[in-house]
Amino acid sequence: MGFSQSEAYVKGFISWDDMKVDGEDRARLSYRDSYNRSRIIVVDKNGGGDSLTVQGAIDMVPEYNTQRVKIYILPGIYREKVHIPSSKPYISFIGNENQISDTIISWNNKASDIDSNGVALGTYRSASVAIESDYFCATGITFENTVVAVPGGYGMQAVALRVSGDKAFFYRVKILGTQDTLLDETGSHYFYQCHIQGSVDFIFGRGKSLFEDCVLQSIARRSGAIAAHHRDFPDDDSGFSFVNCVINGTGKILLGRAWGNYSRAIYSYCYIDNIITPSGWSDWNYPDRQKTVVFGEYMCSGRGADTRGRVPWSKTFTYEEVRPFLDMQFINGHQWLRL
């Protein structure tokens, strides 16, 4: 299923057009050659599309494709483990952005599960959906891992979404799990108006990501943590920035834990419900990290935003200090987002 040379191009950015299947596109969906005409693959678990499964649609995308391919996923629960390899960039997952819960990709692996070779999967391989390609985007989809972590349980890490590619955009998606829900592993990513749910370290990894206008919902019964960022050196260009998010749910949780000596997580203009442990942050029992991590809050509100009980080594930012983290400049969005 190749492209002619004249069709080949690389569009080095993501735009709103990449996130929608418009009227003209929908009209073409009745053609069986719709993929070659408009780069759309329809997934319908009931048999009315080009593929019954999401993975089947990904498998139809040619290796090293240079054009945007829109995978239009009709409502339903797709119980499958999905992998997009690094050799398949420019893929969109598109559901209905107003009915995110109608289109669900769901699986139930956890870190202690054993693969066919008798080896434990580990956290990395537990992901329901793993995205290793660049310029991926998604809207109107729920990514889910249905494992319910037991506090203190062994090997209960269960990733709903792993993002290891560079330059990914998620708009109005839900990412649902308990322990280690979102593995934001490497690359620059933008999460806008998303809903992310979990209990322990439910956003973690080495990524450089902006979370804007998101809901971060804790389902912890007692204790837990939102962000566990991993950063080994002071010049690592990574970190998690949460801007204008709503933090709510249950339990008494930490804003972040220092997974790595230079872990970086910043909350700005967020509304924080009364679910935060007063200390706010953990050094992961490595006191030396108190001198090197970048943890802090700026102009947050809500009962959980009271910083009087915070650990003394969390940061108090001036506007000038926090400004680089407040918008797409943080993820170099001007280079790869046209929104």
From TrEMBL:
It catalyses: [(1->4)-alpha-D-galacturonosyl methyl ester](n) + n H2O = [(1->4)-alpha-D-galacturonosyl](n) + n methanol + n H(+). Its main location: secreted. Its EC number is 3.1.1.11. Pfam families: Pectinesterase. GO terms for molecular function: pectinesterase activity. The active site is at residue 201. Gene3D superfamilies: Single-stranded right-handed beta-helix, Pectin lyase-like. One of its GO terms (biological process) is cell wall modification. The keyword Ligase does not apply. Pathway: Glycan metabolism; pectin degradation; 2-dehydro-3-deoxy-D-gluconate from pectin: step 1/5. The keyword NADP does not apply. Residues 41-333 form the Pectinesterase catalytic domain. It is found in: Secreted, Cell wall. Keywords: Aspartyl esterase, Cell wall, Hydrolase, Secreted, Signal. It is an enzyme of class 3 (hydrolase). Belongs to the pectinesterase family. This is Pectinesterase. It comes from Jatropha curcas.
